[in-house]
Amino acid sequence: MSTDRVQEIREIPNGDKPNPEEYLSNDYIDNHLSKFDETGCYKIISDKRGEPSGTIGEEGVFVLNGEDVDKMIDEANGDPRKLEEALAMKTGYLGDNPYIIRCDEPHNLRMATGNEPNAWQDEWCPCGVTRDGTNEAVIDPMEKGDYSFKHVFGDDEWRK
Fold this sequence. Notes:
Elements: H1 3-11, H2 26-39, E1 41-45, E2 61-65, H3 66-76, H4 80-86, E3 99-103, E4 136-139, E5 147-151
Helix pairs in contact: 3-4
């Protein structure tokens, strides 16, 4: 897709953006989502609210695939500010020891439309990638029992 078309879609207000099926081929969408089927769905969240519990997310939960999240964590080298930068988050957003959530039972894996309530209008990009090219997708909220978690840095054991 051309840079002009990407920018055109980005400038459409939340709630009015077209569905990805209108501007992406089925092959592109299937190939993109297969990355999540193969390596899993992960979300990095702040430690400021304490240990994850209950339902994670609301209408649509943005997730990263396992390959991209592993690379991102390796490159951050223990620095949550580097994770924030890679995820286009404000400095301090993730706190000092963020959690990584692994969705063990993802429901309704799909391309992000940019109309999700938690899509950051200034940062969201069409085509299922962030501004720096990290793959992202959306799943339905994760219920307790459908996910495991640990601290991004330091914890080896996944907890339910």
